[in-house]
Amino acid sequence: MTQLQPSPAGQPAARTAHQAARTGHQAAEATAFLDVRNLSVKFPTDDGLVSAVNGMDFSLERGQTLGIVGESGSGKSVTSQALMGLLKGTSARVTGQALFQGKDLVTLPESGMRQLRGRNIGMIFQDPLSALHPFYTVGHQIAEAYLVHNKASKKQARAAAVDMLGRVGIPSPEQRYDEYPHHFSGGMRQRAMIAMALICEPELLIADEPTTALDVTVQAQILDLMSELQQETNSALILITHDLGVVAEVCDSVLVMYGGQCVESGPVDEIFYDTRHPYTLGLLKSMPTLSSSSGRLNPIPGQPPSLLDLPRGCLFSARCEYAALAGDGVCASQRPELVVEDGHGKRCHLSGPQIVTIRNTR
After folding, report:
1. Residue at 287 is within a domain
2. pTM of the predicted model, to two decimals?
């Protein structure tokens, strides 16, 4: 495992995420395919303001896969909805920037987003049964996406949809084109959703827990299919999931969310083997393994904080068994910045050596 090394005198080894963003944005504008800066989403309610996403910063290049993980309610899906512009016209207050090929997805009007959705940015939704319209055939819905973004006849759109159904592994695609969603199994519906998302070969694909309701065998087939199609088109992929096993298999980098914030981010190997945040350690520890002799699960104790009333200090401090190590109650009283070191970020008051000790004894 790589240990954090102190920096030479007068040369700080780490920077906060916003410091890194300020110094790197000029270069990012020239190179980053997707560059998200300080993205926040808040929902006004009768009980107060729900802070669903707070200050997200990340970037993605073509051909790369970013995994966004965290417990339910951590802000993963809201982040994806904000990027897709699906919160426009709602009560949601979306701030920050999400630069996609130089266009800000946050401020882009709905007319501009309609031009991007489907053609440049595609999305695979979590529940294909609710995402597919029950009164239209599956093929019609896929062809419709093609017609919206291409100057094509209905015959050409049908041919493109049939071809895509075949590419995603649906047998007898010509026949299945005219069938309704309830005629498809769960795995086949998910394949149809992938076909719909990819019919226009988007450059960025967002997959929101695309394998949650599927059995392990079908899950593996869907993941292989997504990886294969991504390689064919050199598209970027954001994979939203709670399954760390899936992340380890398909992702290049990982962003761990908790309470609407990024608490750790970095290359996938470092997240698993050079973990630097107690929450990420807790997620890894809670995963069942075949080598476990006790047969018992190790869940993270407690509950995530209320997004209506976030604590003043670290959002994870009430559940963190190592908070006392930071001393002086700092975890409960001061909210840490996301500190980035060599491309690996963590939002934690604990020092590098303390994290290494914790990691080696878990």
Report:
1. no
2. 0.87
